[in-house]
Amino acid sequence: MQILLVEDDIDLADALLQTLKREGFAVNHLTRGQHAIDAVETELPDIVILDLGLPDMDGMDVLKALRKISADIPVLVLTARTSVEDKVSGLDLGADDYLAKPFEVAELMARLRVFGRRASSLKHSGLVIGEVTLDDVSHQVQVLDDVIVLSRREFMVLKALMENAGRVQTRDSLESKLYSWGEEVASNTIEVHIHHLRKKLPTNFIKTLRGIGYIVKPESK
Ligand code: CA
User: Fold this and answer.
1) Separation of 50 CA from ligand 1 center, angstroms?
2) Which pLDDT band holds residue 87 (cuts at 50, 70, 90)?
C-alpha cells in the first residue's frame, strides 16, 4: 500500500513517517502542494494524506487538482481548521475523510485501514491485463477506452481466463464453468466462444495450447 504524505510540519511528518513505515506502508513525503500534484500525475499512490496549510498553495486547491487527476484516489485531509464550513467545503471538493490536528496516531491508523479496505475492493472489481479491463460488477469489458460487447458466455470464458492468467484452462474446465451438469454441449462450443472473443480482443490476447487448452498471459510489470 503506497501512501503520499503531503505535510510541511517536519516534526509531525517525521513522526508519521516512522509510524507508517513501521506499520508496513510504503510512504513518500512531500512538503509542497505543487510537488504533490506533479507526483500524483506521474504515479497514482493508493492513499493521499493531505495537510491543508501548505507553504505554496491552499490545500483545498491541491485537493481540487487531485480530484481532476483521479476521482477515486482516497484522500485523508489533515487540518487545524475545525470550523464546520471548512469541513463542508472540503467534502464538496472530494475529501474522503478528515482528521483535526492534534490527533492520535492510532486514530490515523484506524482511518487508513478503512481506506485500505476500500482501495483493495475497488481494485478487486476490475481485472486488468494489458489493454483489456474486465469489470465483474458492471459486467463490462474494455479494450483500452473502447467498451466491447460480449455475450454472457463469452464474458464468462474471458473472466475465467483472466482470473487464472498464467494458468492453462482446459476445454473441460471452461465448459464446467459455463454449463450445468447434464446440459447438452456441442463438442466445439468453447472453440466457438474463443473464436468470437478473439475477433473483439487484441491479437494474441488468448493463446491456444494445442491439445491442452487456452491461456491468457499476465502482463509482466
Ligand atoms: Ca501545515
Assistant:
1) 9
2) low
Residues 97-108: tens digit of each pLDDT? 888 888 888 899
Regarding pTM above 0.85, the answer is no
Count of all residues that appear for the chain in the document: 221
Distance 156 CA to ligand 1 centre (A): 50
Calculate how far, in angstroms, residue 41's C-alpha sits from the geometric centre of ligand 1.
22
Sign of CA dihedral 81, 72, 106, 31: negative
How far apart are the CA of 54 and the centre of ligand 1, in A? Answer: 5
Per-residue HEC secondary structure of the chain comes to CEEEEECCCHHHHHHHHHHHHHCCCEEEEECCHHHHHHHHHHCCCCEEEEECECCCCEHHHHHHHHHHHCCCCCEEEEECCCCHHHHHHHHHCCCCEEEECCCCHHHHHHHHHHHHHHHHHHHHHEEEECCEEEECCCCEEEECCEEECCCHHHHHHHHHHHHCCCCCEEHHHHHHHHCCCCCCCCCCHHHHHHHHHHHHCCCCCCEEECCCEEECCCCCC
**C-alpha cell of residue 215:** 491461456
Judged by average pLDDT, the poorest of 2-16, 66-80, 168-182 is 168-182
